[in-house]
Amino acid sequence: MAEKWYERSGEHGSVVISSRIRLARNLKSYPFPNRASLEQKREIALRVKKAIEESNSTLAGSFSFISMEELTQLQAVSLVEKHLISPEFASDRKGRYLMLSEDEAISIMINEEDHIRIQVLGSGLSLNELYNTANNIDTLLDDALGFAFNEKLGYLTQCPTNLGTGMRASLMLHLPATEKNRAIARIAGNLSKLGMELRGTFGEGSDVKGSLYQMSNQITLGISEHTAIENLKNIASQMIEQEEKSLEELSKTLEMQDIIFRSAAVLKSARLMTNDEAMKLLSNVRAGMVTGLIESKDYSLLNRMSEQIQPATLMTSNNREMTPQERDSARAELLRRELKELF
Amino acid sequence: MLCQSCKKNEATTHIKRVVNGRIEEYDLCPECAKKMGYTSLFSNFESEWNSLLGSFFGGGLPSRTSATRCKSCGASFSEIAKRGMVGCPDCYETFYEELLPSIKKIHGNTRHNGKFPSSSGRQLAIVNELESMQEQLNEAIARQEFEKAAELRDKINELKGESKNG
Ligand SMILES: [Zn+2]
Ligand SMILES: [Zn+2]
Question: How many domains does chain B have?
């Protein structure tokens, strides 16, 4: 099996879990998905498939073409957990298709909100590289299919919130210290004035899961791809510096040291573990790695664990439906096995 | 319909998210939707767009639009407003005047700056690429990355040549 993108380590991996670039595109001569027939949707999908396969790019061979209707609900939800498709795309699968690269770094959603959503994922801070990849796929598809474009409004999208570049660039950030200092709301407020957004990722309740936050550009019309990415990177580098400094301070307290080592101990010995608990413990261990309290710097192992312990992904890899307790048991076992050597 | 979270405000957004291996659906008011961070990696601004169009609608519809339909897809502006989704690329021409106020509210801008597809005419693509590269060149100089700057300057000259010949 090919190495997945999240098994590679990336720049600033202490704070930046992953980067993502998404481009929204539509074909010129078809209605947008909300007014397109199933026949038209199928035709669009086959044209995208053909364009990728007939391109001379090295990419072509690594893609699989998936008709979403042929997946089980479980497989579809697992793709959401891995951030490869949206919940909407998984729940209503009729007329929807997916092209997925072997390393799961590139996914092309066909007939989601737009005809085409090109998404490229990478670990650490890697927006420029990801944009180059997305841009190449975009050019290749545009040459073959002809995208809807207007000089004034840019790329035309089903929802006007994506007009212009159609690009959403985002970073998944791990911010335990910033969160503890109650600085998130203030930063989020400032960011929104700059056309950017910071929001938590949520677990079962309304608590932010594992101190994970997503930062992205909100405005797509009137600002170039390059500038949007530079803005995001500038803010991110300030936040990384701040987070590392605060975490360093925090780790000097006995309370924080206790939390970190306790978390490591529980991960090593628990027999039942819920997803929310596991995410929280993994977050604490990551903080331990950043501050050097835990010697290893294997952030990519933690990233891989966070993917594999998600409920539907866990059941998919076990090839069966499981009760919540069976999942909690399998999750605990997986974590014990994989993290054994770590601390 | 009332918001399923606060049970006070009108629900305007239908959201889907994955919780514990299952897809769950909620009807939420904009405030609760925001509070719950209702998407993971996939931002979705439909709710804002809907409420923007809603308020725009409330102010009385210009008479022309209720009868006008897009020649390509048949959508009327009221259908677009109701769904919060535009019908087809040509709708942006047909309903340009009606859509513009909302677009301006969302982005603060109404003019594209960024990539031009080559299908829009190579000339346009070159003009835009030149602008973006000039921007990068200025940044490289400001950061004293002279090697990168020289590289960019060569590329810019090359493009300028192509632009003249094209
Ligand atoms: Zn509410
Ligand atoms: Zn139309």
Answer: 3
pLDDT of residue A206: 59
Question: Which pLDDT value is given to residue A203?
Answer: 63
Domain membership of residue B31 as a residue range: 1-38
A83 contacts B109? CB cut-off 8 A: no
Residue in A87, A195, A202 nearest the CB of B23 = A87
Over residues A109-132, the mean pLDDT reads: 97
Q: What is the dihedral of CA A308, A336, A319, A312, to 10 degrees?
A: -40
Find, in chain B, the residue whose alpha carbon is nearest to that of A143. Answer: B119
ipTM of this model? 0.87
State chain A's mean pLDDT as an integer.
93
A-facing residues of B in 81-110 (CB < 8 A) are: 83-89, 92-93, 99, 102-103, 106-110
Report d(CA A89, CA A77) in Å as an integer. 10
B128 & B161 share domain: yes
B37 vs B104 pLDDT, higher one: B104
Q: How many CB pairs under 8 A join A and B?
A: 200
**Contact status of B59 with chain A (Cβ, < 8 Å):** no
Is B127 part of any domain? yes
B134 alpha carbon – ligand 2 mean position (Å): 37
Do B24 and B50 belong together in one domain?
Answer: no
B113 located within any domain: no
Cα(A29) to ligand 2 centroid in Å equals 10
Whether B128 and B151 map to the same domain: the answer is: yes
pLDDT in tens, A37-62: 999 999 999 999 999 999 876 776 78
Show the beta-strand stretches assigned E in chain A: 16-25, 63-67, 97-101, 106-110, 116-123, 149-150, 154-155, 167-174, 196-202, 208-217
Residue B77 falls within a domain, yes or no?
yes
B140 vs B46 pLDDT, higher one = B140
Task: Point out the residue among A90, A148, A163 whose CB comes nearest to the CB of B23.
Answer: A90
Stretch (H or E) spanning A192:
helix A184-193
- Helix pair angle (A225-250, A275-291), 10° resolution: 80
What are the pLDDT digits (tens) for B99-143?
A: 998 899 889 888 999 999 876 666 667 777 788 888 888 888 888
User: Residue A149 and residue B40: Cβ atoms within 8 Å?
Assistant: no
What's the confidence (pLDDT) of residue B64?
55
Residues in chain B with CB shorter than 8 Å from the CB of A163 are 103, 107, 112
- Is residue B49 domain-shared with residue B83, that is, in the same domain? yes
CA distances from A305 to A62, A150, A293, A333, B42 (A): 24, 44, 20, 12, 21
The answer on B51 and B14 residing in a single domain is no
Within an 8 Å CB–CB cutoff, is residue B127 touching chain A? Answer: no
| Shortest CA gap B117–chain A (Å) | 7
What residue ranges define each of the domains in chain A, with the CATH number in brackets?
5-245 (3.30.590.10), 254-339 (no CATH)
Query: Do residues B82 and B103 share a domain?
Result: yes
A226: nearest Cα among B43, B158, B146, B139 = B139
Asked if the Cβ–Cβ distance from A142 to B132 is below 8 Å, we say no
